[in-house]
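In response to the reviewer comment on reproducibility (Comment 2.3), we provide here a single inverse folding case reported in full, input and output, so that an independent group could reproduce the run without further information from us. The structure tokens appear first.
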């Protein structure tokens, strides 16, 4: 009989140390959402070399038939669904242990924003260096905008996290009604475009409060998942087919309307369909994650979730900029206006992953901070209590 490899043994120890009460499907859904966002950006974000300037473009602008890619890889609603579920469950647990709201919130925000400092520091230095060496301002602006684009998500998630005690009983239909009325005024009555920014909060409140309903046990029956999936998909299809909403669920450069910036009713109903599918996948995921190696992979992604999320755009840009030394290359610097570009871009994905691995090695310590010596502070103790047994065992393994 073959001796198990060290990796298999570590995975087995991690599996054995995970409490039977832990819902592994929650971690899996978070990992899938992260990987969906990363792959989505890597596939539809192009940095085109235009003379001495780099500008953003997208194959979705030239090849609208590729819009279904965005249906698979725009997974933000699942992020907020899981975020709402975890936050409401965590807050209830903290209250039961006598942890104050301020202690609980500080612990969660520290975990959320601690890795951001390294990203801001690096890009502050990089921006200054690029400008001092004569780089085109338009190029620098493009790079910085892409590098910092993930931060909007963190700001919205932080605001919703802070409001968690007020949102534990909010019916998702209320924020959905706000989104509906905002879009009616914007698109149906010719209202001001800035009104759409109200949907930045209301739109993501819908899946976040669905996560709270999950915590309350209201979404345990598969019927809830099917209703959300079929209803959300049908309404989204109708909005795209007859109400003029874009088919792409991500922003497209040059498009008059973006479904994501700010969120539209179509983006929110599409998110409901995604949430329904996520709920239906819980039991299959639980079965798959009984396998120690599969569970270890999910834990690894979750331990590095913020590092992967924050640095994946930097990995793409570092690869693109470095490759310019070899001259304009297909799938990187050319205009993404044919299917050939898309095929070549797929071949670049392992290179992007390698660059992201370098970023992970360099910056993961900002997310996976070692325990301080001596008696930890009250905030650190709360942070440890909320971190989860599986994560601590992964570091030990």
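Designed residues, in position order:
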């Amino acid at each position: 009989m073959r001796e198990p490899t060290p990796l298999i043994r570590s995975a087995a120890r991690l599996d054995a140390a995970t409490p039977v009460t832990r819902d592994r499907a929650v971690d899996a859904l978070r990992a899938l959402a992260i990987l969906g966002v990363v792959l989505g950006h890597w596939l539809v974000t192009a940095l085109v070399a235009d003379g001495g300037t780099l500008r953003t473009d997208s194959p979705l602008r030239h090849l609208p038939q590729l819009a279904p890619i965005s249906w698979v890889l725009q997974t933000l609603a699942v992020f907020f669904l899981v975020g709402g579920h975890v936050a409401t469950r965590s807050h209830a647990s903290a209250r039961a242990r006598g942890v104050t709201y301020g202690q609980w919130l500080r612990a969660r925000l520290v975990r959320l924003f601690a890795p951001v400092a390294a990203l801001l520091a690096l890009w502050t230095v990089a921006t200054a260096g690029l400008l001092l060496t004569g780089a085109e301002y338009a190029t620098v602006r493009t790079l910085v905008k892409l590098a910092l684009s993930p931060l909007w998500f963190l700001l919205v998630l932080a605001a919703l996290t802070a409001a968690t005690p007020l949102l534990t009983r909010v019916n998702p239909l209320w924020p959905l009604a706000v989104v509906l009325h905002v879009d009616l005024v914007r698109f149906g009555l010719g209202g001001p475009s800035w009104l759409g920014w109200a949907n930045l909060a209301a739109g993501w409140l819908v899946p976040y409060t669905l996560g709270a309903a999950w915590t309350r046990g209201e979404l345990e029956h598969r019927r809830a998942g099917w209703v959300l999936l079929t209803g959300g998909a049908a309404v989204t299809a109708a909005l795209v087919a007859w109400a003029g909403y874009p088919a792409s669920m991500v922003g497209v450069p040059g498009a008059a309307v973006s479904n994501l910036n700010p969120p539209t009713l179509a983006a929110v109903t599409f998110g409901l369909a995604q949430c329904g599918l996520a709920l239906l996948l819980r039991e299959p995921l639980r079965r798959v994650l009984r396998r120690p190696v599969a569970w270890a992979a999910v834990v690894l992604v979750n331990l590095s979730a913020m590092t992967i999320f924050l640095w994946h755009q930097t990995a793409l840009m570092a690869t693109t900029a470095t490759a310019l030394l070899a001259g304009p290359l297909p799938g990187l610097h050319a205009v993404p206006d044919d299917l050939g570009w898309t095929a070549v871009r797929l071949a670049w994905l392992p290179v992007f992953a390698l660059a992201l691995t370098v970023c992970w090695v360099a910056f993961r310590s900002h997310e996976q901070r070692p325990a301080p010596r001596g008696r930890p502070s009250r905030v650190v103790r709360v942070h440890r209590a909320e971190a989860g047994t599986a994560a601590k065992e992964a570091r030990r393994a």
